[in-house]
């Protein structure tokens, strides 16, 4: 068997070939295949990637790469080029920059993250489904937006925005959370910013308009309690950060719900 290629068998005794390469004393798995010629091609490409940086490159500024019609997977191509250029082995398809890094989901879908997230994404593989990006964390599918305090129900352009218009740029300074609580939206009224609370019953109903985001979030929690006394519905309440139990109780008691809303719920 040629160097870097190892014959193996699956549990059902089907033969296959594992491919790996050693670079800078690091043993790197390149994947497996049932075809010996493909295995040889993968190993040969890996050697060329490590030897010819001008041909097999990653251009972070233009998000362009020298990956064309290759047998080696895109993930492994990025792993090898990053290790070659930056001297750090990372098992996920990350290419390092000075204050950020690129994460390659495909040749055209490339996400940018702040360097603060490097450890996390070095150990969590991003998956995608219908434009939804998530990782598997403790056996659960967790949206990458949760790292910014953005809830699953949140709507891009309404509850959060990408400041520079690039929805692949997940650097912390580029992701701005407009509305961080369930049922709460920021609006302008009489020239000032206020917060409107709505809850979905058989449709969307306005609970009230409040001067602070915390008040609006608490109003939603109170509305949930009121509605669930009448209907068998499940709602996720807001967790309001930074409040002691005394402050929480004081805010709870001070928040009032719109009379028309209370009257509507009473008739349910």
Spell out the key features of this protein:
268 residues; alpha+beta; four-stranded mixed beta sheet; three-stranded antiparallel beta sheet; elongated
Quick summary:
By secondary structure, the protein is α+β, with helices and mostly antiparallel strands. It has a domain of 83 residues.
Structure description:
There is one protein chain. By secondary structure, this protein is α+β, with helices and mostly antiparallel strands. The chain has a domain at 184-266. It has helices spanning 36-51, 74-86, 118-122, 213-228, 245-254, 259-266, and strands spanning 5-9, 15-23, 26-33, 58-59, 64-65, 94-96, 100-104, 110-114, 127-129, 132-137, 140-143, 160-162, 169-170, 175-177, 184-189, 192-200, 204-210. The strands form six sheets. The protein has a four-stranded mixed sheet with strand order 6-7-8-13. A three-stranded antiparallel sheet has the order 1-2-3, with helices on one face. Strands 9-10-11 form a three-stranded antiparallel sheet, with no helix packed on it. It is elongated, with a radius of gyration of 26 Å.
